[in-house]
C-alpha cells in the first residue's frame, strides 16, 4: 500500500495569511464600533479583556490591528508547523 503524500504548509506564509486576516478583521470591527455600529460589540468587549491597551476607540483601531496581526501570525505559524509534524 502506497504511503499518502500530504502537501506541506509553509508556516511563514500561512502565519502571514492568518495575521493579515486577523488584522483586517479586528481593524474593521473596531472601526465600525467607533462609528456606532453594534455588530460584534460583545466580541470586541471580550477582546478588550484579553489584549492589554486595546479599547474601542480611535487608538484602539491601531492597537487592535497590531494585536490581530500578531495573534493571527503566531496562531497560523504554530498551526502550520504542527500540521507539518503530524502529516
User: Looking at the structure, what is the overall shape?
Assistant: elongated
- Unreliable segments of 5+ consecutive residues: none
- If helices are DSSP runs of H or I spanning 4 or more residues, what is the number of helices? 3
Q: What percentage of residues falls in helices of 4 or more residues? A: over 70%
Q: What is the rounded distance between the termini?
A: 17 Å
Counting DSSP E segments of at least 2 residues, the number of strands comes to 0
Q: How large, in whole angstroms, is the Cα Rg?
A: 17 Å
| Main pleated-sheet profile | none
Instruction: Assign the structural class, choosing from mainly alpha, mainly beta, alpha/beta, alpha+beta, or little secondary structure.
Output: mainly alpha
Integer count of domains = 1
Mean pLDDT: 94
Q: Strand share of the residues?
A: under 5%
Order of helices and strands: HHH
Describe the structure.
The protein has 87 residues and is mainly α. It has one domain (16-86). The chain is built from 3 helices and no strands. Helix 1 packs antiparallel against helix 3 (58-86). The protein starts with 10 loop residues before the first helix and ends with a helix. 26% of the residues are buried. The model has no long low-confidence stretch (mean pLDDT 94).
Amino acid at each position: 500500500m502506497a504511503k499518502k503524500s500530504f502537501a506541506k504548509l509553509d508556516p511563514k506564509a500561512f502565519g502571514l495569511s492568518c495575521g493579515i486576516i486577523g488584522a483586517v478583521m479586528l481593524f474593521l470591527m473596531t472601526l465600525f464600533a467607533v462609528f456606532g455600529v453594534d455588530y460584534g460589540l460583545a466580541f470586541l468587549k471580550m477582546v478588550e479583556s484579553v489584549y492589554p491597551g486595546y479599547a474601542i476607540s480611535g487608538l484602539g483601531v491601531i492597537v487592535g490591528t497590531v494585536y490581530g496581526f500578531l495573534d493571527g501570525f503566531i496562531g497560523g505559524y504554530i498551526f502550520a508547523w504542527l500540521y507539518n509534524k503530524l502529516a
